Amino acid sequence: MAIEKVTDIPSDNVYAYALSKTLTKVSSPVTVGLYSECQNRINMVLKNIEVYMNQEAKRREEKYTKGAKPRSITPSISDVLSLILRLLFYRPVWTEQNQNTKNIRYMFVRFSAWHFAGSDLLWAGLVMQLTKAIQNNFGKLQLGLFRIAQHDEEKDGGKKKIEDISKHWRSKKLGCIPIWALILIGFIGSLLILVPLIIFGFPDLKKHQEGEKVEDPSGYGALEGIAIAVLGVPAVGALRFILLLLKNLIFNQDLKIRQGLDNKKVSQQLGLMHEVRKEMRLLCCFIYFMEIFERRRIRVVLEITNLDRCTPKKIVGVLDAINILLSDDESPFISVLAVDPEVLVGQVQQAEDCLSKRDSAYDFLDRIITLPFTVPPLSDVSKSIVFGNIVRGQSEMPEDIPLEETGALAAGCPATSVSVEDECSVKYSETEEQAIPLIAKKGNVETFAAAELNLEEVDKLTESAFSYISSRDKSKLQTYISGDTMSMRRVINSIRVTIMIMETRKLEPPPPDKIAAWVVLADLWPCRLSWILQCVEDDQQSDEIDGSFCAADNTKTLWEVFNYNSLELCIIGHTVENFLERDGDPELFEVFLRKDFKFTVGELEMFKLCTVNLNYSIKNELARVRGSRRLKRAGRNAFLSLSSRTVMNMKTEAICQELSKLSFPEKYLNTVRENFIDGRTILFSDPRDLRQVLQMTLGEWMTFKIRFLGVTPSNRTAQAKTPDATNPGVVICPSGQ
């Protein structure tokens, strides 16, 4: 199948679908970085993810035929009574069967950080929102009963022990007798004692009422004591249980956290974090309990939005909370951090005392994010649709567009209708696992061809890519893959998403080793790959304008593109130093692209449609820096200045020839020869040192500078003359001036 031109197909639904399918396959906990500059696009992708994940959960339950069906999410009266009995008298048993069940339920919790921005501890608001959502989904009474009758901090603090038995529940026992049996015996015994006493009364009281003399009242007193003891102990136990339950229903964890926030002595110490961590562990254990009861796995998808609008310190606090509270090995949480990456990185970089000197904001995020997912820029067709919606006064990203099902499907294969034409959330119907069509059909608008998603092919390619990386004989990627386990998780998850998008877009997938290598390239050298993308894009635009040499020829290798533009990257290196520090070994980068994996520009054009683990904020910053240099280049052309590449390749005699053309005196030519001044010396030496060696007048120096170094803006000149406040008399001279 030839590679199709798919650049004009709107893709937001495709990306949302690919991400949702990946999240249904990865094991929790996982933290997703959902990156986009447009908040509306983020909201749309989040809504579509909810639809697709719920659709997948529903499909799995309908297809499930082994054993008992999962319980209804909306419990009946009998289910509630059964849950209460199991909370009181049974403990769950973790078995291979209930831990590996494919049935799953997703619970979505939206946390808008902006709503809690006024709190000193923003992460505490996140925990409160999560606790409230779990209470609303499962019930306050059920959570309170679990806290009293089930939760044991010591027993539940460790990992779950998998047992090889068929039973999913085990009775709580006191000694060798189940507690429910003891209570039942006590209840029957109480009835046997209480009923005769009520009917016949105590003998001494009866005789006393009849005026008879009691010969030995001590015997009857002992009988009364036994009766009171038998009846009183269960009553006291029941009363204590009811009081504890009422306490947990009235004074819940929300109130406890608020009290801790109000108490400065607690909130300023580790006490509050410790209490909150214990509460998070209790919630996890409660979810594990409900998994056994409902006969399905339960995953809580925490969607964190608007975090980039908060102050730097609060942002770092929330990120730390995600890393500390929600990332235990067996945690059932999937955290989706939906932000503008450029703003978030800038805010984190400004956080005081939160990053070490060796760390950057990107390093900090890399330790938390296990699946970076960047929503690529809108395609041309998507832009026209959104623009038309705004002109008509509609929402930028429509949300409720009716979809129609196609009849051209394989027999016996239900379909899911997904509009890939509108950036919108979708309605869904049941699907089979092997073929899921994505169709575009709406009114009189142009309809795109249906894309049939073969999940068997996706799984086959994914496994092939993974086996290629792990193969010691065939693969060379072991040399390049980072030893950091978080980086390995990002590579694994990104490979899944990349293959899913390729199959959805009906692209002919390249060999699995190429897919794996591309994902590793984007993970290890994001800045250098972003630079190549930007150079290719600029050269294509330049070729469209004036038909000049195009470095983006599809047969040209990426190493040739990088090597041709490496001088410019070297010159602006100080400006993008923070990005370059993220990259891995530069020598390995050269071996990777020059020898082992010779990617071409044509392959880059295909891969960039499916690359979601590359942060586009890096490319945007490189585009700004390169754009400012192009303004200087325009100034060079106006003043007949030489380009940096031309000056770099000039020898000493070539410099002298240029000076002769500018009618400089012979003494300057001799000075150039005596000091072996060539193009590299002019570009990389301090301009003040260069002028001092040449001993030029102001007018001569400006002529020389314009010719060889280009035009310097007046604001930078003024900045260079500004004395350093901390070192009087020292002049700051920006590089390149």
From TrEMBL:
Limits of the KAP NTPase domain: 45-467
Matching InterPro entries: KAP_P-loop, NTPase_KAP_P-loop, SAM_KIDINS220
Transmembrane segments: 177-202, 222-246
Alphabetic keyword roster: Membrane, Transmembrane, Transmembrane helix
The UniProt record lists the keyword Aminoacyl-tRNA synthetase: no
Domain Kinase D-interacting substrate of 220 kDa-like SAM intervals: 647-707
The name this protein goes by in its record: KAP NTPase domain-containing protein
The organism's taxonomic lineage, starting at the top: Eukaryota, Metazoa, Chordata, Craniata, Vertebrata
